[in-house]
Write a structure and sequence with these properties.
The chain is α+β, with helices and mostly antiparallel strands. Helices cover 28% and strands 29% of the residues. Strands 1, 2, 3, 4, 5, 6, 7, 8, 9 and 10 form a 10-stranded mixed beta sheet that branches. A hairpin with a 6-residue loop joins strand 7 (167-169) and strand 8. It is globular and about 45 Å long. The model has no long low-confidence stretch (mean pLDDT 90).
């Protein structure tokens, strides 16, 4: 059984540290030892919100993602990464940031639970679901090839205004990353109906236990997506 827990980073430093450890272990397994988004300053960033996936039996964090809300004092991970090759990223973030924008970042999945569909499917859905609580007008992301198609099905589109029509070699020259944007994370007009219906269901049931079905069969998920301290605008 898995538990999905949403929270503001600065409100739960212990969970954040466990997130960092799990993410670093996964990056090392894939040979990535230095990547901008693995910078751990986000733990003290009041504009970062986190969703962790824990094993209910042990409390071990086995998957997670972050949403970084754009703020002049706290550059988004993709601003730091993409600006190395394309400075237009700064203007792009400012433009989307007028109505509140956040970057979905740091998505990782332990090899021990690969094949369930937890990360690329359920976790991204949960991340989009909490955008409503955060009152975000858009969502940005820099995604690997294997998460591009699941993201497009959920209502993202390729942001072609930066890079080579939206693509970059990052974090290693043999890995392709694509910049994507969701311009209406509330209504999700570009999402597949199944994805849109699921995300709306989560928003109406932020605390719910459900049986989910993935490639490895059925499994229980306890969702706890109610976030305390969502009023980030008061600090802008």
């Amino acid at each position: 059984m898995f538990k999905f827990k949403a929270f503001r980073a600065i409100d739960d430093p212990e969970r954040c540290q466990n997130f960092v450890k799990g993410h670093a272990d996964v990056l090392r397994q894939y040979g990535v030892t230095k990547v901008t988004s693995s910078n751990n300053d986000w733990i003290k960033n009041p504009f970062v919100y986190v969703i962790t996936v824990e094993l209910v039996d042990t409390g071990e964090i086995v998957s997670g993602l972050r949403i970084h809300i754009a703020h002049p004092d706290y550059p988004l991970p993709m601003e730091l990464a993409v600006s190395q090759v394309d400075h237009k990223i700064f203007g792009l973030v400012r433009e989307y940031g007028v109505h509140g924008t956040g970057e979905v970042s740091g998505l990782w999945n332990s090899k021990s639970i690969s094949g369930y569909g937890v990360g690329a499917v359920l976790l991204i859905r949960a991340g989009i679901a909490i955008a409503e609580q955060l009152k975000l007008g858009s969502l940005l992301a820099l995604v690997a090839e294997y998460t591009l198609m699941p993201s497009l099905k959920k209502g993202f589109e390729i942001e072609e205004g930066i890079g080579n029509s939206g693509t970059f070699f990052y974090p290693k020259l043999d890995l392709v990353a694509t910049s994507i944007v969701m311009k209406d994370p509330i209504n999700l007009p570009l999402a597949d109906k199944e994805e849109r219906d699921f995300i709306h269901m989560l928003r109406q049931n932020l605390q719910i236990t459900r049986t989910e079905t993935g490639p490895k069969g059925d499994f229980l998920v306890e969702y706890d997506l109610v976030i305390q301290n969502t009023d980030w605008r008061k600090d802008v």
